[in-house]
C-alpha cells in the first residue's frame, strides 16, 4: 500500500503571518490539530495544537504573536508513492504522527497529509496494525 491510498488530499496552507489565535481558530473551524504554514506556495513550517498548548504557554507568548514564532521550521515529509511500511518507520524514527505528503522529489508540490490515524483506518492485517502501534509508542 502506498501513501496516496490513505492520505488526506488537498491540504490547505495557513499564511505564515497569522497569529497564534488565528491559527487556533482555524484549527477549531477545520477540526484539525496540524496545519502547514506557508508563504505563497512554499511550506515554511508546521504548527500543531500541541505547539500552541505547550510551546506558546511555556514561552509566554501572546495569542497575538505570530504563529511562526512557535512553529516547527523543519517540515517533515514523505512522497505519495512511498510504501506505508517505510512511512511508519519514518514516523517512529522521527517520533511524529503526521507527515506532509509531496508529489515527487522533482516538483515537491504539497498534495496531502498522512497521519497515523489515516494509516490505522486502512489496517487490513495484524502486521500493519502492529507497525502502527509501534510508531505511536512514544506518545504517553
From TrEMBL:
The keyword Transport does not apply. Keywords: CBS domain, Repeat. Gene3D superfamilies: CBS-domain (3.10.580.10). InterPro entries: CBS_dom, CBS_dom_sf, CBS_domain-containing. PROSITE patterns: CBS. The keyword Repeat applies. This is CBS domain-containing protein. It comes from Marinobacter iranensis. The lineage of its organism: Bacteria, Pseudomonadati, Pseudomonadota, Gammaproteobacteria, Pseudomonadales.
Amino acid at each position: 500500500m502506498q501513501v496516496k491510498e490513505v492520505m488526506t488530499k488537498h491540504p490547505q496552507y495557513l499564511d505564515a503571518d497569522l497569529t497564534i489565535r488565528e491559527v487556533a481558530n482555524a484549527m477549531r473551524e477545520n477540526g484539525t490539530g496540524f496545519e502547514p504554514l506557508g508563504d505563497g506556495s512554499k511550506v515554511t513550517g508546521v504548527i500543531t495544537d500541541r505547539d500552541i498548548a505547550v510551546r506558546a504557554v511555556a514561552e509566554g507568548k501572546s495569542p497575538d504573536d505570530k504563529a511562526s514564532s512557535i512553529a516547527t521550521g523543519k517540515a517533515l515529509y514523505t512522497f505519495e508513492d512511498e510504501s506505508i511500511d517505510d512511512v511508519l518507520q519514518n514516523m517512529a524514527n522521527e517520533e511524529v504522527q503526521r507527515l506532509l505528503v509531496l508529489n515527487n522529489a522533482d516538483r515537491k508540490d504539497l498534495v496531502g497529509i498522512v497521519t497515523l490515524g489515516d494509516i490505522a483506518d486502512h489496517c487490513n492485517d495484524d502486521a500493519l496494525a502492529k507497525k502502527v502501534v509501534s510508531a505511536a509508542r512514544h506518545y504517553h
